[in-house]
Amino acid sequence: MITTIVKPVGYCGGVTRAIEIARTVKKENPDKRINVFGMLVHNYDVVNKLEEEGIHTVYVTDPIRQLNEFTKDDIVVFTSHGHPKTYSEILEAKGITYYDAVCVRVKSNLDRIANAPGEVIYIGYADHPETKAVLALRDKKTIALYDVHSGMDATVITTMNPLVINQTTLSITELNKIYSAIKFKYPDAIYSDEICSATRLRQQAIMNLDEDTDLIIVVGSPKSSNTDKLFKLAKTHYPNANVFKVDNIEQFSRYHLNLKHIKKAAIAGGASTPIEQVEKIERYLASQ
Ligand code: SF4
Asked: Could you give the CA distance from residue 286 to residue 288 in angstroms, rounded to a whole number?
């Protein structure tokens, strides 16, 4: 069996930086409770490892209440996905220290939207933290949400040339389909494709595998948007291949697959997947 690792692989720059920030904050404040507000990385193995290091994840269900529960013994770290400004304002008012690990790509997207001269159509997933951070800007400007699953919401766009901008981890092909739908309604819309390079390069690489690849394993947690896109692209582009999405080697090995007939395998990882998880699966395939 020939095995290819789809590159780039391992954490993207934004995830690497967010983990570094959280670990530095913990090291410099050993006696404080370090709370990451949301999943720092959309990977359960990584989040569990951080928990062992004393970096606690707060799963956000009721943000205002949860933020108000912090005390001066807490330090809060906001994730790479961005957060509504009101969240940090709550902490500032209570005198609680916080750090913002927002990815520079997400931050520049938020700034572009905030400073756009006209109306905005934002393409993303309604339940993704990046989308929530964008929609929090609605107090200043008109932003319609084009949810990838359910289409455009009821926000009224009055001009024919809104700025169309998107979540950083969407699928290239999915975005092009949505563009066509928007173009039909807003022929003069202005497009700003914000899929980040970490996401785009992985998607392009998975679409450029040998056509006769017969096993593709995409490694990453269900919460990871860009991992999900890699999986869907692999399923669409290689209809004859066996395509799996797994969290880690433990999950993959539970399938007890007979791999003797596999000639070409490929392993891909999302931007939040540690490279070690990919390498473990590579070693497993080599041992078959
Ligand atoms: S996937 Fe892209 S936007 Fe998201 S953290 Fe990584 S580099 Fe930043």
From this structure: 6
Instruction: Please state which CATH number belongs to domain 2-10+198-286.
Output: 3.40.1010.20
* Third-level CATH fold of 13-103: Rossmann fold (3.40.50)
- Cα-to-centroid distance, 57 and ligand 1 (Å): 19
Whether 4 has a pLDDT exceeding 90, the answer reads yes
Q: What is the pTM of this model?
A: 0.91
Q: How far is the CA of 98 from the centre of ligand 1 (A)?
A: 21
Checking if the pLDDT of 2 tops 90, the result is yes
Q: Is the pLDDT of residue 288 over 90?
A: no
Atom of ligand 1 nearest to the CA of 271: 1
Q: List the chain domain ranges.
A: 2-10+198-286, 13-103, 105-195
Determine contact, residues 182/163, Cβ cutoff 8 Å: no
Q: Tell the residue number behind the tokens 């913002």, with chain if given.
A: 100
CA of 73 to the centre of ligand 1 (A): 30
Q: Roughly what angle, to the nearest 10 degrees, separates helices 104-115 and 13-28?
A: 110
Q: Are the folds of 2-10+198-286 and 13-103 the same? A: no
CA pair distance 203, 227, nearest whole angstrom? 10
Tens-place pLDDT, residues 175-203? 999 999 999 999 999 999 999 999 999 99
H/E stretch holding 267: strand 264-269
Atom of ligand 1 nearest to the CA of 13: 7
Q: Residue 169 CA: which ligand 1 atom is closest? A: 1
